[in-house]
Amino acid sequence: MSFKSLGLSTELLRALVEQGYSNPTPIQHQAIPVILEGKDLMAGAQTGTGKTAGFALPLLQRLSERSHAAGKGGIAALILTPTRELAAQVEASVSAYGRHLPLKSMVIHGGVNIHPQIQKLRGGVEILVATPGRLLDHAQQRTLDLSRVEILVVDEADRMLDMGFIRDIRRILALLPARRQNLLFFATFSREIEELADELLRSPVLIEVSRRNAPAESVEQLIHPVDRKRKRELLSHLITSNDWRQVLVFTRTKHGANKLTVQLERDGIRAAAIHGNKSQGARTRALADFKHGDVRVLVATDLAARGLNIDQLPHVVNFELPNVCEDYVHRIGRTGRAQHEGTAISLVSIDEREQLKSIERLLKRAIPEEVIVGYEPDPSIGSEAIPNGPMGSDPRREGSRPAGKPLGQSKRPERRQVQNSSRARQRSPFSK
After folding, report:
1. CATH number of domain containing 191
2. Predicted TM-score of the model (pTM)
3. I want to staple 264 with a disulfide (CB 3.0 to 4.6 A). Which of 54, 124, 269, 373 is the partner?
4. Which helix (H) or strand (E) holds 62?
């Protein structure tokens, strides 16, 4: 199966060759023909499966086939994303795929001056990628017109709902023409996604390229039990002893991300933090330094669990388990992308055993454990309450559809025999 067989234009095929792509991924193979036919689409796909091209390519083709010239027809396609990073990433992909077409695209999001965006909008744009808040800012100032939108894409819809954007989405829908094509993409399924789909879509085609709420099969998952106060010490040990050069580490809070970054720097490990309190410029620089290898560890909150496009990222570490278990899937989805292998390691203290159970229930499998010699949990240390948690599954997700067939056995599998002399098999504090 090739892109040519999907009916894409010569201009798009040329751009794909220049980008080094030859064969479509499963989501692209299924979504592109549906979108080219003008049908509404509801698509479930994990990060790293190529879903951006899955909607960008047919969107570009449909718009290029219209009769009016570039820049004179107004905004014809609107792509909504939950985060600034994802918005920038999507627009970059749209621009790359459409480089040989007479179509203009741009991105608008918060954290930067609005006036350059206004000037660019005045020059004429057909494809607009936006975060909800900044889009509504422009709408309020009447610096854009959405009355001619023909195609609406809601990307990472589940994250949109998690971040509380449902009211903003409804306000945006009120600004759009009733007659349009709607494309809804999500990674994890919930009752709220189903309700949004019922409200947004008309006789949609449903596509799911992986089991619901499942991480990519190319991600190896592993748990290291450790006392809460020794997590940073163990993280530094893992990074230095294994010579990890590129590690994405997740914390629950912005303060925790900043604190861990400082501690890693004191350990001689170049690190940077990325979260909502950082300016857009600081976030962009930190990500660029991480991609270029100038920064070894990028410490992030769940804000960055979506929208970070890092080619062949080898390691993700959950320094703290997320309060909402579905966020675990989003976090570890940063590695193991595009059929590359990756490792997701979670440093789990006794305080987080309920969160671990919730994650394993969601995955329908137990995650293997390894206890690192010298970092064995102290059985005399009791658990403490976690601020704002543990919540396990988001209570708003009650009533969600089941995640599907189990990936493995329901009981905890035996931990692997560790050959490395720095590790040893021990009884887990979580197996009680």
Report:
1. 3.40.50.300
2. 0.65
3. 269
4. helix 51-64
On average, the pLDDT of the chain sits at 84
- Distance (Å, rounded) from C-alpha 116 to C-alpha 307? 23
Q: Are residues 54 and 198 in the same domain?
A: yes
C-alpha closest to that of 212 among 423, 402, 422, 383: 402
Given a contact cutoff of 8 angstroms between Cβ atoms, the answer to whether 36 and 178 are in contact is no
Q: Tell whether 193 and 231 lie within a shared domain.
A: no
Average pLDDT value for residue range 396-412: 31
| Domain's final residue, options 208, 235, 250 | 208
Would 381 be classed as within a structural domain? yes
Across the strands, what pairs with 221? Answer: 344
Q: What is the DSSP letter of 369?
A: B
Distance CA 261, CA 269 (A): 9
The b-or-e profile of 186-212 (16+ CB within 10 A means b, else e) is bbbbbebbeebbeebbeebbebbbbbb
Which residues form the domain of 123?
4-208
Let me know whether 335 and 277 are in one domain.
yes
Least confident of 3-7, 45-49, 219-223, 356-360: 45-49
Q: What pLDDT score was predicted for residue 69?
A: 41
Which residues have C-beta within 8 Å of that of residue 384, sequence separation ≥ 6? 228, 351
Instruction: Answer yes or no: do 108 and 127 share one domain.
Output: yes
pLDDT in tens, 246-264: 999 999 999 999 999 999 9
Alpha helices, DSSP H, located in 201-301:
231-241, 254-266, 280-292
The residues, any chain, with a CB within 8 Å of residue 96's CB and separated by 6 or more, are: 15, 19
> Which of 128-132, 160-164, 213-217 is predicted least confidently?
213-217
Helix (H, G, I), strand (E, B) or coil at 422: coil
Residue scoring higher pLDDT (341 or 365): 365
Report the number of distinct structural domains present in the chain: 2
